[in-house]
Amino acid sequence: MLKISNDLISKINAHLEAAYPDEGAGFLLGDEGEVKEILALPNAREDEARHNRFLIAAEDYMKAEVKADSLTLSLIGVFHSHPDSPNVPSEYDREWAQPFFSYIITRVDDGKAVSHRSWRLTEDRSRYDEEEIFIHEKEK
């Protein structure tokens, strides 16, 4: 199970809706299956491919590692959008995924985030298993 606050889901939605009609993406920072912070990133893909592909640049990956370290957190996953498409992993997603990360895929229809699903790649990299997302109120 992946735990995340309403506040962070709202931040993910805002980033992905702003990226529409292109895919948007970012990192999930946290520990022990709970997202504590997100890092929204620009889509580094070439313009003509951004509508159905995202790319996280190496320097953005490094920036995420540094930010996670500064917060005493770890990179625990990636979030990205599927504009006007089902929020299930594509073959392209599987080829680039890491088995120890959670992958939140958000369906964005007509510029509005409509649903979130989370996936984990199996260790043999053959398929994804869906994991439950528990969305909770932000702790005070």
Explained architecture:
This protein has 140 residues and is α/β, with parallel strands linked by helices. The protein has a single domain (2-136), classed as Cytidine Deaminase, domain 2 (3-Layer(aba) Sandwich). The protein is 24% helix and 39% strand. It has three helices and eight strands; from the N terminus they run βαββαβαββββ. It has helices at 6-19, 58-70, 91-96; strands at 2-5, 25-31, 34-41, 74-83, 102-109, 112-121, 128-131, 133-136. A six-stranded mixed β-sheet has the order 3-2-4-5-6-7. A two-stranded parallel sheet has the order 1-8. The longest helix has 14 residues, at 6-19. It is globular and about 35 Å long. The mean pLDDT is 92.
- What is the third-level CATH name, the topology? Cytidine Deaminase, domain 2
Question: What are the segments in which pLDDT stays under 50 over at least 5 consecutive residues?
Answer: none
End-to-end distance, in Å?
22 Å
Q: CATH homologous superfamily - what is it?
A: Cytidine Deaminase, domain 2
What is the CATH domain class?
Answer: Alpha Beta
Helix-strand pattern, N to C? Answer: EHEEHEHEEEE
Class by helix and strand content?
Answer: alpha/beta
Spatial arrangement of strands, main beta sheet? 3-2-4-5-6-7
Strand content range? 35-45%
Provide the gyration radius in Å.
Answer: 14 Å
Number of strands: 8
**What is the architecture at the second tier of CATH?**
3-Layer(aba) Sandwich
- Count the DSSP helices: 3
CA-based shape: globular
Question: What is the residue-mean pLDDT, rounded to a whole number?
Answer: 92
What count of structural domains? 1
Helical fraction equals 10-25%
Largest sheet: 6 strands, mixed
